[in-house]
Amino acid sequence: MIEETETIDEFLARCSVDVEEAVRKAAAAEILPRFRRLAAHEVDQKSGPHDLVTDADRLAELRLTEDLGALLPGSVVVGEEAVHADPAVYRALQGDVPVWIVDPVDGTRQFVHGDDGFCTLVALVQRGVVIASWTYAAARDQFATAVRGQGAFLDGERLFAGPPTPGRDLVVATSHPDYTTDEQKGALRPLWTDGLAPRACGSAGLEYLAVARGELDAVAFSWEAAWDHAAGLLLVEEAGGTHLTLTGAPFRVTGGNALPFTAARDAATARRVADLLRTAS
Known about the structure:
By secondary structure, the protein is an alpha+beta fold. It has helices at 8-31, 55-71, 80-85, 108-112, 182-188, 204-212, 226-238, 267-278; strands spanning 43-48, 51-54, 76-79, 99-106, 119-126, 129-137, 142-147, 151-154, 157-158, 170-174, 196-200, 218-221, 242-244, 261-264. The chain is built from eight helices and 14 strands. The strands form three sheets. It has a seven-stranded mixed β-sheet with strand order 3-4-5-6-7-8-9, with helices on both faces.
């Protein structure tokens, strides 16, 4: 619980481990017991056959909403499933109070299919600035954290993205074609060019982690749902990377971005990908 005169930074210094524990407990209680054990009645569609939600998503988000709110009284939670039920919840990102952005199962399709490429994403935001993030790949037992100005870490080891290997094609994970319109596909088409090796993304959170680890050169995404991006963007920044929208401005979790946007392991790579994306507009 935050003390009455405590700043957010002081809260994090005291309670960041408690947030990590809350994420681990939610995954242990609601996600991992259902991994590769989902019954048909535990899986539903939202907007279409590729947009899935499970009981694990719903129950993990409810648990995180309760536990995170208790850790930081006065904060609010913007969760993917809560926003699906009531889009007005998203407006909390425009306010002044601290906001927890939660994606209980990022990569639900992978989770449903028994693939371990999913994770739980939590970010703490205030006045549009991502202050801290937690990325938990429960089935892989990997936990990444970042606090603004204090670095990014995976299982306690500092992450440094570093520049790409000279002379090698840049590997860029892009919005999956199953989730994009024809217009969005067209906006990403300039990436299919010499010197780049684009591929469809899986879990956005794990793609961001791959950029922060220097295993992936960049991502290029055509949607701006904050729960998919907030945690990973801070990981990339704190590992030495950067992100750019089509206007050259950084991505804003509050919305209104010029899309598509990119996040990359270094500034030169981000500029190259952003410059190519601009040729489609």
